[in-house]
Amino acid sequence: xxxxxxxxxxxxxxxxxxxxxxxxxxxxxxxxxxxxxxxxxxxxxxxxxxxxxxxxxxxxxxxxxxxxxxxxxxxxxxxxxxxxxxxxxxxxxxxxxxxxxxxxxxxxxxxxxxxxxxxxxxxxxxxxxxxxxxxxxxxxxxxxxxxxxxxxxxxxxxxxxxxxx
Length: 165
Known about the structure:
Layout: H1 9-29, E1 34-41, E2 46-53, H2 59-76, E3 85-89, H3 100-105, E4 110-115, E5 122-129, E6 133-140, E7 145-152, E8 156-161
Parallel strand pairs: 2-3
Antiparallel strand pairs: 1-2, 4-5, 4-8, 5-6, 6-7
């Protein structure tokens, strides 16, 4: 089966269901500072919705969104047997940032930037997000001098916020 890029019916169905869940969720987020990071559905019909919010995603916001979305999924009968579970949460602390909005929210925090090239990971303070990339402030050398580095989005493999104690 070389060269066949068609999705299996099961995967195609999951892609459609994921899009339907996104369409149900987006109106629930209107007028809030919350936004969708990702939606994943496991083969066991376990739906994981990862949200973020400009002001931080509280447990209360997650729980309210979960209850409303669960009711909508049942109402639309996306899983006719009612055989599904739903989790609404923020992405884990080790999850890479995936959108410009997440980058902006994390300005001022320490991040690890993995480049697409074989260059080593860069660790520094996320100073700014521009139209074309990010501005990273790093301490370099023995004297820990500050160096500012602009990194275009197309050269970034992933960015992960670092927890600094």
